[in-house]
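Q: How would the structure tokens look for this protein?
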Amino acid sequence: MAEIKCPKCAGPVQFDAGTRFTKCSYCSSQIYIDRSGALFYYAIPFTLSESDAVGTFKRWAGGSTKAKDLDKLAKITKVAKKYFPLYMFRRLIDDREEVLLEPAASTVLPGLHQLKLPGGDLQIFDAQFNTSGAEMVQPDIAMTHYLTTLPGNAKEQSLVYFPIWELEYQFKGNTYHAVVDASSSEVFASTFPIRSSVAYIAVSIAGFFAFIGEGLLATVNLLAGTALMAVTVAAVFVASLYVARRL
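A: Here is the predicted structure in token form.
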């Protein structure tokens, strides 16, 4: 069952999905349910358990741009299971239907402006929906805040609760936050420990100057210059491999 407020007495009115007309049980008003004007409530079930979310974070932390051994040394200090609300606007724009998502709650968590709507996973959010113990983040941004700036014509506007895992972790004395989308397994982080590029730059500079010197030598002694260039290529390769694995 879905629920809206009666436009006359503001009483809660429950109705089945697909219903176009219903009657308020409080003031007996007949209500026409227009999907472009009524606000529907949906939720997306969790598909990642806590251990799955931590594993997803570890794989993300092992990426090439992350600090060395972040996946092994990051100490997870907090894991929170939450449902975060976003407004979903289905709009007809230039004869194409597009879905726009906007946050319904204030937040500093990373990535919640980038959540994507998975196909076929929307379920009506009512008293029978199983939240699995997740914290329900309450909306504090009015839908009307977005309506005046949206393009096209309205087809439907809804409040959708997205499942997320909020992770807090420590690395080398600093605290960071990450969000794991529990429906798509995508990881979001505004800041995270990155791999230093100093060693890579040092190897590149050393190789550059070595090639210059060997090029000048090759103008005098081609064989010696070519041989040294081959040695430099091997040395740069070994040094780069060492930096990638150790630093």
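The mean pLDDT is 83.

The longest strand covers residues 75-93.

Upvote if useful.
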